[in-house]
Structure formats: structure tokens, C-alpha cells
Amino acid sequence: MIDYNAVLNNKYVKIILEWLEVIVIAFAIAIVCKFFVVETDIVKGVSMEPSFVEGEKVLVEKLSYKFSDPKRGDAIVFRPIGTKDNYIKRIIALPSEEVDIKDGNILINGEVLKENYIKGENFTGLDHIEFPYIVPEGQYFVLGDNRMHSVDSRALELGEVSKKNIKGRCFFIISPSDYFGKIEKINYEE
Fold this sequence. Notes:
By secondary structure, the chain is α+β, with helices and mostly antiparallel strands. The protein contains two helices and twelve strands, in the order ααββββββββββββ. The chain has helices at 4-8, 11-36; strands at residues 38-42, 57-61, 75-78, 87-93, 98-102, 105-108, 111-112, 133-134, 139-143, 161-162, 166-175, 181-182. The mean pLDDT is 87.
């Protein structure tokens, strides 16, 4: 017959059980973080150049939008309805704001949005909306930073993004190492 007390009091068994406990706790914390706090995503395509390059791995912070609303300039990860792919785009206009594109500029409520991060020109093109356009309540108007090569809120297949479809805000690039670092917030006042 096995003496379980003797086995549990064995020095090596105690060490193994302590390590198992640490591993289980670490795994549980990682699962909670993955589903509720932060996750990774990989940039696909060229629609966010020059801010994000295809193949970059970014950290996506998921907690702040549970307590506050997304902000203009945030680079967000979202999953459009009916797709299984994530998209990364930049929030340009907030709910109830008027968006217009004139002379290659984005206008929000009649004011030119100063964008020093874009590649290419702003154009209405695509086939979704007519400008000026009022963003519906609860929706966000998003654009890629590479406007000539972006499927975004201007396009029928994407349209506006609902807050409930936003997974989170990109806040850090973790690879490749050339781009490693914090993603700077956009300041439209400069």
C-alpha cells in the first residue's frame, strides 16, 4: 500500500507540485490577458503604410474601450461583420461628425484634418458613400493611411465600424526588431 503522506512530504514531489502550481497560475493569467487585456495581430497588406508595414506584429490593447470611447487618430483592430479576418485602420471621424473630402483634404465638420502620416492622396472614389457624409451614431469612420490602396469606410464591402466590432487599439510594435517600440498617438493640433 502507498503511503500518500510520505509521497507528498518528499522534497522532490513538493518541488514538482510547486512548479506545477506556478505553471497553472501563469497559464490562467495568460488566458485572461489574451481574451480581455491584450493580444497580438499581424499587419496584412499595404493599406496602413507608412505607419505600419506588412508583416509587423503589433500589440492590441483591449481594455480601455470598455471604459471609454475610441478617439480620432487611434489605429484600431476590428473584425467587420461577416468576415473572419481582422483589419487595422485609423479612426478619422467619430459618431455624428460630418466627413468630407475636398481638394485632397479630409474635412471633419468643415475643418481640414492635418494628417502628416498618410501616403498617397485622399480621394472619394470607391463606391460606398457620397460626401459630405454624416457618420451614424455608434459608428466610426476609418481610413487606411495608404489611401490609394485601402479598403476602408469609403468602400461598400467595409463601411463604418461599430464600437462593438472594435477589438482594441494598436499601441506597440513587437516585431520585426527594426520597428520595435511604442506607437505614437496622433496629435491633430500640431
